[in-house]
Write a structure and sequence with these properties.
31% of the residues lie in helices and 15% in strands. By secondary structure, the protein is of the alpha+beta class. It has a single domain, classed as NADH Oxidase (3-Layer(aba) Sandwich), CATH 3.40.109. Strands 1-2-4-3 form a four-stranded antiparallel sheet, sandwiched between helices. Bound molecules: flavin mononucleotide.
Length: 194
């Protein structure tokens, strides 16, 4: 058992994981939108909501644009994704007349929470949401027309989990839920004592 908790939690936290064996089946648009809907309700500093999502459904040019930016390791399995999503954040406070543009310090933090809401909603609906940092951000920004004051935080593969036999051998061996560090390594009382 790689996923034992030290304290009881809602099983959604331990049952969600990031499989790579995906079936390639079509993701209904309403279902996809429900994932973004979940993300929309994430908290953010001053309710700025810096997250933006650009998606491409399998078999469309939008998918190909995102897919083309992935490193080969990710291409090997994400080719069977039903959709790819670029998770993007606005780096600056929203423009206000008479005010200079100022960096928005929590753009990544806030967008991270939106991604997690998306992932949990996908899991709840029986779909996989697998985040990837293995992509070329410059290539992707160019392909999607992302302006310089936005950061591409991650690409997410969405799909239906299938049997791991669809994966190359090396990936089949890694196809299992991973463990976590013990609580004592991540939580301390009163002082940073790690
Ligand atoms: C920001 C981010 C980047 C990631 N990059 C990749 C990636 O490029 N390729 C990949 O196969 N998995 C990637 N992952 C998946 C992680 O390896 C995975 O979430 C982690 O090992 C924990 O496992 P779990 O999601 O199954 O619980 C990434 C996850 C995150 C959150």
């Amino acid at each position: 058992m790689t996923r034992q908790t030290e304290y009881p939690v809602n099983p959604q936290f331990t049952e969600r994981w990031s499989p790579r064996a995906l079936s390639g089946e079509a993701l209904p648009l309403d279902t996809l939108m429900s994932f973004f809907e979940a993300a929309r309700w994430a908290p953010s500093s001053s309710n700025v909501q810096p997250w933006r999502f650009v998606y491409g459904l399998a078999g469309t040019p939008g998918f190909d644009a995102i897919f083309g930016s992935l490193v080969q390791f990710n291409k090997d399995w994400a080719q069977k994704a039903s959709a790819l999503v670029a998770v993007i954040s606005a780096k600056n406070w929203p423009a206000r007349e008479g005010f200079e543009t100022k960096p928005f310090g929590s753009h990544s933090f806030d967008t991270g929470s939106a991604w997690m809401s998306l992932a949990l909603q996908a899991h709840h609906a029986g779909w996989v949401a697998h985040a990837m940092g293995g992509f070329d951000a410059a290539v992707l920004a160019q392909a999607l027309g992302v302006p310089a004051d936005y950061a591409i935080e991650a690409v997410v593969a969405l799909g239906k989990q299938t049997d791991k036999s669809v994966l190359p051998q090396a990936l089949q061996e890694r196809e299992a839920p991973s463990p976590r560090k013990p609580m004592a390594e991540i939580v301390a009382e009163g002082k940073f004592s790690f």
